[in-house]
Specification:
By secondary structure, this protein is an alpha+beta fold. Helices cover about 40% and strands about 10% of the residues. It has helices at about 10-15, 35-40, 50-60, 85-95; strands at about 20-25, 70-75. A two-stranded antiparallel ribbon has the order 1-2. The longest helix has 12 residues, at about 85-95. It starts with 8 loop residues before the first helix and ends with a helix. The relative contact order is 0.24.
Length: about 100
């Protein structure tokens, strides 16, 4: 199946929700009854985790020795910019403290 549209909601989501929040353990809430809206929305929703943020968090966690064998959740934050090196360090420091 091919896509006819040049701009899709996935692309809009990836552009609009580039920020990340981390939480130690499996404690982030899910979308609940709003899942149908969160699944096709291009904005930040409670329970969302963007594929770009999750992928980068997984890679960044490999650089953080204290993140070894630790579960953490990755959530979305509305932002057009990806976290900087310093912001990633701060996110992991706060999450793992």
């Amino acid at each position: 199946m091919t896509k006819n549209d040049i701009i899709t909601w996935q692309l809009l989501f990836d552009c609009n929700v580039r920020g990340v929040k981390l939480a130690r353990g499996d404690v982030m809430s899910g979308p609940g009854f709003k899942a149908v809206f969160a699944a096709t929305g291009s904005d930040e929703h409670e329970g969302d985790s963007g594929r770009c943020g999750v992928a980068e968090a997984m890679l960044r966690s490999l650089e953080v020795e204290r993140a070894a064998n630790v579960d953490f959740g990755v959530g979305t934050v509305a932002s057009r910019e990806v976290p900087s090196e310093e912001e990633w360090e701060s996110l992991f420091r706060e999450c793992l403290s």
